[in-house]
Design brief:
Subcellular location: Cell membrane
CATH topology of the largest domain: Rossmann fold
Keywords: Cell membrane, Lipoprotein, Membrane, Signal
CATH superfamily of the largest domain: Response regulator
Order of helices and strands: HEHEHEHEEHEHEHEHEEEEHEEH
InterPro entries: BMP_lipoprotein, PnrA-like
Distance between the termini: 44 Å
Protein name: BMP family ABC transporter substrate-binding protein
Structural class: alpha/beta
Number of strands: 14
Strand order of the largest sheet: 2-1-3-4-5-13
Length: 368
């Protein structure tokens, strides 16, 4: 980063870099080789985030994983954070900040190369599936700055952003155990690997923390984008007696919500719940008779991306560093949602226990 650019960035008030909670709006789609250039959909509602703000000489882009930017989960959370940062700093979408959508893994490297050609200062890969691609383009472009979310790169020009997902999932397990009426709950993971294993491990530990006799049905979709598979797995779990399902599967989770809504609308007396992931997914649980999102674990991907960007602006790019976000930093958490007072009280007690070190949450199933 040039001294001229750095001086211009330092002139920005730090408050312009802070993110509000996820807005919950759907980001619009783009092709795999062009950044988004659509206007922000909040403009008509009176949002003037970028008004009277001097544009800064800095730009950020992200490459999604297979779930897409409108997955209502992980990628969307990252995009909402980047978009808000761009608006607050007077940047134009498509030049100051952008996303490149990947429909499958073959799009990863081409999307990075397109972002490179478009001249973005930092390019983030959103999700551990992009690690190999990030490392490849980082090796080929040693003077370019990159970021990887949910995995660790050993390249000096890559910052690694990780999350203690098992801690938030533990709270989800406590919430599920305090709420279930059947004594059976489900967990649907995306693609098997260390990251999603953290979710599974924390959730199972949280359930057992409350009542180790509760049965946890664990299944994997081996996808982050196939909502149909999510609906199919959820149908089996609900039919087998589970009344709560926690998904950590990106857009696959849309199918879980669909199945729960269909069942609740056809038989409202058979109460079913879904626990959302990565962002507050309460809106996904709306149905004719109410709302079936019990709660959601939060993963502040957008905040993390903005914080590392801020560090690059204020102190220099943190290349080669790994930054971990847990309950103690507010990087992960659980929303109150539709939890009962008793269940929420148990969650708050468990949260404090984890932060204080009185409760040690296992990180991986193979480390139990």
């Amino acid at each position: 980063m040039s001294n001229i650019k750095l001086r211009s960035l330092l002139a920005i008030g730090s408050s312009a870099l802070l993110l509000a909670a996820c807005s919950g709006e759907d980001a619009s789609d783009t092709s795999t080789d062009e950044p988004t250039t659509e206007e922000d959909t909040t403009a008509d509602s009176g949002d003037t985030s970028g008004d009277n703000t001097e544009s800064v000489d800095f730009s950020v882009a992200m490459v999604t994983d297979e779930g897409g930017v409108d997955d209502r989960s992980f990628n969307q959370s990252a995009w909402e954070g980047i978009k808000e940062w761009g608006q607050e700093n007077g940047l134009e979408e498509g030049s100051g900040y952008a996303y490149y959508q990947s429909d499958d893994s073959s799009d990863f490297v081409p999307n990075f190369n397109q972002a490179l050609a478009d001249g973005y200062d930092i390019i983030y890969g959103i999700g551990y599936l992009l690690l190999d691609s990030v490392n490849q383009v980082a090796d080929q472009n040693p003077d370019q700055h990159f970021g990887i979310v949910d995995d660790i790169s050993d390249r000096d020009n890559v910052v690694s952003l990780t999350f203690k997902d098992h801690q938030a999932a533990f709270l989800a397990g406590v919430a599920a155990a305090e709420t279930t009426e059947t004594g059976k709950v489900g967990f649907i993971g995306g693609i098997k690997g260390p990251v999603i294993d953290r979710f599974q491990t924390g959730f199972e530990a949280g359930v057992a923390h409350v009542d180790d006799s509760i049965d946890v049905d664990v299944q994997y979709a081996e996808s982050f984008g196939d909502a149909g598979i999510g609906q199919q797995i959820a149908a089996g779990m609900f039919s087998n007696g589970a009344d709560i399902i926690y998904h950590a599967a990106g857009a696959v989770g849309n199918g879980v919500f669909t199945e729960a809504r269909n069942r609740m609308e056809s038989d409202p007396d058979n109460k079913l719940w879904v626990i959302g992931v990565d962002r507050d997914q309460e809106a996904e649980g709306d149905y004719d008779g109410g709302n079936l999102t019990l709660t959601s674990t939060l993963k502040q991907v957008g905040n993390a991306v903005v914080e590392s960007t801020k560090q690059a602006i204020d102190e220099g790019f943190p290349g080669g560093e790994t930054i971990a976000y847990g309950l103690e930093k507010g990087g992960v958490d659980l929303v109150e949602g539709n939890l009962s007072e008793e269940a929420w009280s148990a969650v708050e007690e468990a949260r404090q226990g984890v932060i204080d070190g009185d409760i040690e949450v296992p990180e991986f199933t193979y480390s139990n």
